[in-house]
Amino acid sequence: MRRPVIAGNWKMHKTRAETREFFDAFKPLISNINHCEIIVAPPFTSLSVAADSARGSSVRIAAQDMHWEREGAFTGAISAAMIVDAGCRAVILGHSERRRYFGETDATVNRKLKAALAAKLQPIVCVGETLDEREAGRTERVLESQFIGASDTLTPEEFSRILLAYEPVWAIGTGRTATPETASESHAYLRRLAEQSFGEESASGLRILYGGSVRPDNIASLMAQREIDGALVGGASLDPQTFFSILNFKQRSS
Ligand code: PEP
Predict the structure, then answer these.
(1) Is 95 a catalytic residue?
(2) Which phi-psi region, left, alpha or beta, contains residue 175 (left: φ > 0; alpha: ψ -120 to 50)?
């Protein structure tokens, strides 16, 4: 049984004061939630405030990126040790916005992934095709090269500590969600890739989150799919009540 994970990616939103306000409202809402794991990924400047504010709750704090080196002359970069020091337990890697605007490649995702695992962070590794790639029938090839490029050289034990997020780029921030069936097909394909690389046991334990315009009104149908183990939520994670409505999917659908 794979325990669901609902993760919120705040992107470049919220000051430290806004972060405190979010948790003041959010913590009481989730006090009885135990059917899923909850992760919140604020921007770097709010990480330690978020970690302090989340104390006493089940929320784990994630960074949205990191550098693979421990320290050095890398202006503007933040290391795994630094985000651990700020209170992080997880880190998002390879988000399509990092790939598109900041030159992230499968090779840099792989280096970051190994550094994150060495620092005992839980990586959330993002993969997903663009609309052009989907329309050209290249979805599986893209997912394969992103999956193999990122996870190459991991041991099965290391692989067992990662979360994978399938985020079709055409669904991120566009209001256009993949249908549960479309998402499920890609998840099943990614699980087959995991099986080929790391064996049946690792593949069946792998949690694959769906990301792309997840909202309170579509989460239940996504989570009803056996292949979908959770969600990576962008815009709809910024408001405490809306994010709560998403992670409360179980109660709402029963
Ligand atoms: C994301 O940022 O990973 C994401 C899925 O964004 P949104 O939910 O806003 O589409």
Answers:
(1) yes
(2) left
Structural domain count of the chain: 1
Three-class DSSP category at 214: coil
The tokens describing 209, both together, are 């989150």
201: three-class secondary structure by DSSP: helix
CA distances in angstroms from 71 to 64, 114, 205, listed in the order given: 18, 15, 33
**Which residues form the domain of 119?**
5-253
CATH number for 192 = 3.20.20.70
In whole angstroms, what is the distance from residue 139 CA to residue 158 CA?
Answer: 26
Chunked in runs of 10, what are the mean pLDDT values of the chain (254 residues)? 96 98 98 95 98 97 98 98 98 97 97 98 97 95 97 94 97 88 97 96 97 96 96 98 93 45
158 Cβ below 6 A of ligand 1: no
Give the residue, by CA position, lying nearest to ligand 1 atom 7. Answer: 234
Contact criterion met (CB below 8 Å) for 14 and 46: yes
**Nearest-CA neighbor of 5 among 123, 110, 85?**
123
Residue 35 bears catalytic tag: no
Distance between CA atoms of residues 1 and 249, nearest Å: 17
Q: Which residues contact 205 (CB under 8 A, 6 or more apart)?
A: 2, 160
Phi first, then psi, for residue 132 (nearest 5°) are: -60, -45
Find the 177 Cα to ligand 1 centroid distance in Å.
10
Query: Bridge-partner residues for 165, per DSSP?
Result: 126, 209
